[in-house]
Amino acid sequence: MPGTVQVSPWSVPIIWDMNLHRLHVRVLLVDRDPVSRAASANVLAAAGVSVVGEASDPARARELAATAIPSVAVIDVDLGGMGAPTLARRLREVSRHRIEIVAQAGFTDVAALGQMVVGGTSAYVINGKPAELIAAIQAVASGSGLMPAKASRPVLEEIQNLYDRERERNGELEQLVTQL
Q: Across residues 21-30, what is the average pLDDT?
């Protein structure tokens, strides 16, 4: 048998490969954009991360979480339906095992990450950064690199402030270039 599955109500389900002596993370991808979902799945597969399910909506994500037993759910913050923060909470509430949540957002969706942190997100990444996605998944699966909501909120607020200032400065520069 290639590995063993360990599941308890208080732990992340893992598969430990006795031959390779490494942890296999089981990832559920939730994103309504099929192109983004496929890109993330390809990146993770190339890194040796097991994608056990892909969902385009919250209802399907909940079904897959119950049957595929993921250890990590990567949820795009621009999710329709009940919304990403509610889905994150529900996945954690209804699951018999611990699911770590990684929020994925576009650069313009940074403000939505704050809601995800309150919903129990363990990590967050910006879309289009494959190395960061892999690192975030590995960190939350191993239990390291996590920031509690109290610590994350000020960081996210500062990121949003920096983004707003940068956008304002770019607008001012565009006006100056137009005047020139």
A: 75
DSSP for 117-176, written as a single string:
HHTT--EEEETT-HHHHHHHHHHHHHT-S---HHHHHHHHHHHHHHHHHHHHHHHHHHHH
CATH number at residue 109: 3.40.50.2300
Q: Where does residue 18 rank: exposed (0-12), middle (13-18), buried (19+ CB within 10 A)?
A: exposed
Is this structure's pTM higher than 0.90?
A: no
Q: Which token pair is 9?
A: 């109500």
Q: Cβ atoms within 10 A of the Cβ of 107, count? A: 9
Range picked from 4-13, 72-81, 115-124, 159-168 for highest mean pLDDT: 72-81
pLDDT at 23 (0 to 100)? 54
- Tokens coding 147: 């920031």
Q: Tokens 């994150």 identify what position?
A: 88
CA distance 97 to 83: 22
Could you tell me the residue range of the domain that residue 136 belongs to? 3-179
Both structure tokens of 135: 């690192």
**40 within 8 A of 69, measured Cβ to Cβ:** no
Q: What are residue 80's DSSP bridge partners?
A: none
* Helix orientation angle between 110-118 and 149-179, rounded to the nearest 10 degrees: 170
